[in-house]
Amino acid sequence: MNAVTIKDVARAAGVSPKTVSRVMNAEAHVRAPVREHVLRIVAELGYRPNAHARSLSSSRSFLIGLFFDDPASGYAADVQLGAITRCRHHGYHLVVERVDRSVEGWLEETASALQALDLAGVVLTPPICDWTELTDLFAQRGIPVVKLGSSTAGPVSAVVHIDDYAAARDMTDHLVALGHRRIAFVQGNATHGAARRRLAGFQDAMAAAGLDVRADWIPAADFTFRSGMAAGDALLAATDRPTAIFAANDEMALGVLVSAARLDIAVPKSLSVVGFDDAPVSRMAWPQLTTIRQPNGELAAATIDILVDPAYAQAETRDGYSVELPYGMIERSSSGPA
Amino acid sequence: MNAVTIKDVARAAGVSPKTVSRVMNAEAHVRAPVREHVLRIVAELGYRPNAHARSLSSSRSFLIGLFFDDPASGYAADVQLGAITRCRHHGYHLVVERVDRSVEGWLEETASALQALDLAGVVLTPPICDWTELTDLFAQRGIPVVKLGSSTAGPVSAVVHIDDYAAARDMTDHLVALGHRRIAFVQGNATHGAARRRLAGFQDAMAAAGLDVRADWIPAADFTFRSGMAAGDALLAATDRPTAIFAANDEMALGVLVSAARLDIAVPKSLSVVGFDDAPVSRMAWPQLTTIRQPNGELAAATIDILVDPAYAQAETRDGYSVELPYGMIERSSSGPA
DNA sequence: CTGAAAGCGCTTACAG
DNA sequence: CTGAAAGCGCTTACAG
Questions:
Q1: How many CA atoms lie within 13 A of A198 on its CB side?
Q2: Which of A328, A334, B182, B262 has the CB geometry, 3.0–4.6 Å to A293, for a possible disulfide?
Q3: Distance (Å, rounded) from C-alpha A221 to C-alpha A195?
Q4: Which nucleotides on chain C have any atom < 7 A from a protein Cβ?
Q5: Using omega within 30 degrees of 0 as the cis cutoff, is the peptide bond preceding B49 cis?
Q6: Chain A partners within 8 Å of B225 (Cβ)
Q7: Contact residues, chain A, for B255 at CB < 8 Å
Q8: How far is the CA of B221 from the C1' of D7 (A)?
C-alpha cells in the first residue's frame, strides 16, 4: 500500500524525519509553532506511524497479548471487551492467544509466538495465571506479565482481582441471615485458585455461624452447567436435602436451578439457589440468580493500565502494582427466607 | 531481549542470512543437506523470525484482524476460538478490534489502526459486515476482507455463512409438521442481514403451508434476552395466543421461555418455543431449546483459510471464494405436538 | 531546539 | 544453488 510515511510528512512540513518522530511521540524540545505545523500536516496527510517499524527500531512493541485457556467462555468475552477498549485508549492493540496444554509442545509454541511478536506485555487469565511454567517462561524472556484473577502475586507479576474469599463469606452470611441452616456448596474446578478461595470463604462463614458442613454437601464440580446440574441432582434427590445451595459460579447455579425444576422443587420457596460472577446467563434464568458481581471489564482494563506503564517493566518487584477491585452482592429472586 | 536473530543462525551455520531466510520460508533452491543443517541450528538456538522485521521488509504482515461490534457476545467467543486456532495453524496471529459506531470519528480511528498494523487481512462479523463504509475503507486500502455471516458477497469480498433462510424455513416446517398452525416469530435486530433472512424463511414457509401470519405475531425485537421476554409477554398475555413461538436467536427464545414460566404456561405442553444458533445458553434452560446449529467455529476457521491464501488478495473478483457451510436442526425438549 | 548517520531484523531484487 | 547490497519505516544515540 502506498501509505504515507514519516518521510512524506517531513518533506511536506519542511523538517527532518526526526522532528516528525519527536512530535508523534510527544517528546519535549520541539518549538510550539513547529509542533503545530507538523501536526497539521500529519492530519492533512492522514499519517500514522507504522507499528512494525516502530517496534523494530525501538524494540518496544505496541502489542499486548491476552492469553486464555478457553477463549470461548462467557468470562473471556467480558474480559476481552475491557482489554480492547483500554488498549485502544493507550494506542496499543490486543493479540488474543490460546494456550492449550493438551497439545504436545505447547510451551515451546507459546514461546515461539512470543518471540515472533515481541509482545509489550501479557495478561494471563484463570486458570493459566497459576501455571508456573508459563510465568517462568515470561520472566525468563523479560516480558512483563499481569495475572488476572489469581491471588498469588509475586515479584515477577502483579495481580488484578476481587476478594473471592470475602465475597463467598458475604454470600454465605446472606443465606444464613435469611434463616438457612442447611446449606450446600457446589465447588468449582479445583485447578482454579478462585474455586479454592470461594470454598474457603464458604467454609469459614459456616464455621463462624456455628453451622456444620456435611462432606457430601460440598460436592466437587468443574464450573460447567452440566456439572452443576449433576451436583444438584445428587443434592436434591435425598429427602433430607439442603434448603439453600451456593454454587461457585453462575453456570453451575443454573444447573442446580434446572435440576430443581425437573424435581419440581420451587425456587426460592422451597430452595434458595445462588451463584457467583453475575454472568449474562444469571439474568436469563427463571428466577433470576442472586449472585456476586465481578467487574470483569474493569479488572481487564486495570491489567492493561499496569502493562503500559513503563515503570512496571523496570520494577524490581512488581507485586506493588497489584490491584483489588470491589465486588458486589446482587440480590435477585432466586434466594429467599428458609 | 537478547533474542537470537537471523545473523546468529547464519554465523552458527556457516551460511549467509539469505540462505537462512530461504530455509525459514521454505523457498526452493536450497540443497537438502544445507537446509537440514540450518534447520538443526535453528532448533538448537530456538530461532524464530521477528514478525515485525518480516512485515517491514516484505510488506506482508502476519496479523489478521477480527472486527466486532460487540466482542462480549456469546457469538463472538465461539468465532474467536475458531479463528485463533486456525491462525496459529497458519503461523498468523489474531488481533481483535472493536468498531464502535457511536464514537465520534470511528471510521478514521479504524483506518488508523489498520495503517499502523498493516493487517494481512480482516474478518468482519455481523452486523458490521454489512456496513459499506467499512468495506469501502478496506477496499480502498487494498486490505483483503472476508465477511462472516453476511449474505451479500461482492467483488471486493467473499462471505462465509450458512443458509439462514433455508434454516428458518426448515424450523418453521418442523413446527408445522408438529401440528402447529398458530405460530409467532420474534424478529432479530433488523440491522442484521441474518435477521431479515430468517424472517423471510419463516414467512415463506408459512405461506407455503397456507398459514396466515398476523402482523402482531411477528414482533420486532433486537436479539437480546430482554427483548425476547418483552415479545413473549405481549404474545402470551392474550387469551388468543400462539401455540408455538419461533425466536430468531436463542437468547430471545430464552426470554420467551421465562415469560411463559412467569405466566405459568407449560413448555412444551401448552407452548412450543424454538430458537436459532445453538448457543451455549440453549442448553442451560429448562426445557432445553430446540434450535438451529450454526457452526461458528468452523465458519470462522474458513474465513482465516481464505485470508491466508495469497491468491485471494490478488483475485480480481473475490466472490468465488465464498463458502456456505451446512447447518443442523437440533430437536430438544422445548418443542412438541400442538 | 533540530538534524544527519546508523541500525533494528528481516526480505527484495540482482549477481554470480 | 548461494550471497552481497540495499532498503522497509521508524528510533536511537550523537552532534551541533
A1: 30
A2: A328
A3: 10
A4: 1-5, 7-13
A5: no
A6: 280, 283-284
A7: 284
A8: 56
Q: Tell if the CB–CB gap between B98 and A88 is shorter than 8 Å.
A: yes
CATH class of the domain comprising A6-49: mainly alpha
Sort out which chain A residues have CB atoms less than 8 A from B227's CB and list them.
none
Cβ contact A306:A321 at 8 Å:
yes
The minimal CB distance from B93 to the residues A71, A113, A281 is found for: A113
Chain-chain contact of B56 with A51 (C-beta, under 8 angstroms): no
CA distance B320 to B3: 42
Q: What is A61-162+296-327's CATH superfamily? A: Response regulator (3.40.50.2300)
- C-alpha cell at position B228: 425476547
Say whether B94 sits in a helix, a strand or coil: strand
Min distance B233 CA to chain A CA atoms (Å): 14
Give, in Å, how far the C1' of D9 lies from the CA of B53.
Answer: 11
- Residue whose CA is minimally distant from D5 C1': B18
Return the residue matching grid coordinates 430452595: A271
- Choose which CATH entry (3.40.50.2300, 3.20.20.370, 3.40.190.10, 3.30.505.50) describes domain B60-162+296-326: 3.40.50.2300
Q: Which residue of B has its CA nearest to A91?
A: B113
Angstrom distance (rounded) from CA B169 to CA B179: 15
C-alpha cell at A151: 491471588
CATH fold group of domain A164-293: Rossmann fold (3.40.50)
